[in-house]
Design a protein that fits this description.
Layout lengths: L5 H6 L5 H40 L4 H40 L1
Length: 101
Amino acid sequence: MERFDKAALNAVQPCDFRNESSLASTLKTLLFFTALMITVPIGLYFTTKSYVFEGAFGMSNRDSYFYAAIVAVVAVHVVLALFVYVAWNEGSRQWREGKQD
């Protein structure tokens, strides 16, 4: 039989389930904002192009492309700012919880 050194046995740490739940929470947040980043700008682009700029304002097809693209870019920036805000607050919350242990 092999003899194990006590230091080697102490180096093996048990699973920290708090880190796993933190990882799952982070992954859910990332997937949620990924879905938002894909659907919101594309949805707003086509919705504002068809219904707002061409339908309500009666703009030409060429002008509606331009203004709908501006709306989509603004939507990307809003989703990105929300992601940064949520990630910042989630990170500081996890830091405070880890600090109290």
